[in-house]
Specification:
Blueprint lengths: L2 E7 L3 H14 L5 E7 L6 H8 L4 E4 L6 H9 L6 E5 L3 E3 L3 H11 L5 E7 L5 E2 L3 E2 L4 H8 L2 H4 L20 E2 L2 E2 L3 E5 H7 L11 H11 L5 E10 L8 H19 L5 H21 L6 H7 L1 H5 L15 E2 L3
Parallel strand pairs: 1-2, 1-4, 2-3, 6-12
Antiparallel strand pairs: 3-13, 4-11, 5-12, 6-7, 6-11, 8-10, 9-12
Length: 318
């Protein structure tokens, strides 16, 4: 088996079907296995995939266990040389998966590789990769510089500037919407940290890989279209999840002396944006929502990995 593909779905039935269809149509030269883990969508995703793609291994969960733990569950069922994480709200372009495999085979020291993502209108979606959060990047966030000078390589460093993802480049973070990793490295890292529910788990994985000496990278030869955030219920809920993930990353990866400063920067940046939202009389603004729930997300996820009983999956594969 060349590649094991793990897709986690949540209330994205039609998008998931389109994603798998594009994956299979554009990757015929590879020996693939596809595992779909459905996080209790209750929208017919499981039945639709079973009907259209009988070769796909479908795992239907009785409740939503989050993205990270669902990926770990799916990955545990795989046997491919490489593991590909793919979002259900994506359309795979011709040769994309093969390009990722070729890149990693040619440079095993990369360990993790991603591609170029486009929005539905064909414009570049920069969220295929990021710079790692640092004291400087969060200080810029705290004072509003990242918003005032978006894509500035100095004042918005996590965005990686205006680089259009059209060249090969080592990056701090390859996001989980399109991420190919050597399966041995995945096992060595223990997969995603299960304390993350959604957002931040890919940053954590890449940071841990970099500490082992690997160099995650992006190749423009692998392109997908990504409908960003289709699995997030509301912008406010998504913002809270992102902030919870970032607070967890700070607590996990920063030194004890820098952690309080990082969390203060994060809180200050949210407070500033919430104040702007109120001044503009936008009480439903996602930053206002995040500020109201600051006590929740500032704690991050539990200090110990979140190990909860996983319900026995119901396989609907015929």
């Amino acid at each position: 088996m060349d590649v094991s593909v793990v897709i986690v779905s949540y209330r994205t039935r039609d998008l998931t079907v389109a994603c798998i269809e594009s994956l299979l149509e554009t990757s015929q030269a590879l020996a693939l296995e596809v595992i779909l883990v459905d996080n209790a969508s209750e929208d017919g995703t499981v039945e639709a995939v079973q009907q259209r793609f009988p070769s796909v291994d479908v795992v239907a969960l009785d409740h939503n266990i989050g993205f990270a733990r669902a990926v770990n569950l799916g990955a545990a069922r795989t046997a491919g040389r490489y593991l590909l994480l793919l979002n259900p709200d994506t359309v795979v372009h011709a040769g994309a998966v093969a390009a990722l495999v070729d890149f990693l085979a040619a440079d095993p020291g990369t360990g993790i590789v991603g591609g170029r993502t486009l929005r539905a209108d064909g414009s570049v979606d920069p969220s295929s990769c990021w710079g790692a959060p640092t004291p400087w990047s969060l200080a810029c966030f705290a004072v509003g510089a990242t918003a005032a000078f978006r894509h500035n390589p100095v004042l918005d460093p996590e965005s990686l500037g205006r680089w259009p993802r059209d060249s090969i480049r080592a990056v701090d973070v390859v996001t989980g919407c399109l991420l190919l990793i050597d399966h041995d490295l995945w096992r060595q890292l223990g997969g995603f940290d299960p304390r993350f529910f959604m957002y931040g788990e890919d940053v954590d994985l890449c940071l841990r890989a970099r500490r082992l000496g690997f160099r995650p990278a992006i190749t423009p030869a692998a392109t997908i279209t990504h409908l960003v955030g289709a699995s997030s219920e509301t912008s406010g809920a998504k913002r809270r999840l992102v902030l919870t993930g970032k607070a967890t990353l700070i607590r996990k990866h920063w030194s004890p002396t820098m952690t309080p400063a990082g969390l203060t920067f994060l809180l200050a940046g949210v407070g500033l944006r919430a104040a702007v939202g109120r001044a503009r009389r936008r009480p439903s603004n996602q930053w206002v929502h995040a500020w109201r729930h600051r006590r929740s997300w500032m704690r991050g996820y539990d200090a110990a990995p979140l190990i909860l009983p996983v319900p026995e999956p119901r396989s609907v594969r015929p």
